[in-house]
Amino acid sequence: MLRFANLMAQSSRTGAGVGPALRALARDVKEERLARVREAAAQLPVKLLFPMIVFILPTLFAIVLGPGIYSILRSLGGKG
Questions:
Q1: Where primarily located (predicted)?
Q2: Residues 74, 80 contacting (CB under 8 angstroms)
Q3: Contact at 8 Å (CB) between 24 and 45?
Q4: What is the pLDDT of residues 25-61, one digit of tens each?
């Protein structure tokens, strides 16, 4: 917003057209917003690592190791 106000003040002082300057300002703001989105997207895998470890891996271990552990316990228990 401050850049917009500075742009308008400068255009008023110099008497230059506002159109090209506004287009350049809009392009700059769009590029900055895109850079922030890309930065946030780059940080996303790091932020998702902890929930994956806490919630997904124990379930995966139970699914993968569960049948084997069940078979071992049945064979050790003598009810096979």
A1: membrane
A2: yes
A3: no
A4: 899 999 999 999 999 999 999 999 999 899 999 999 9
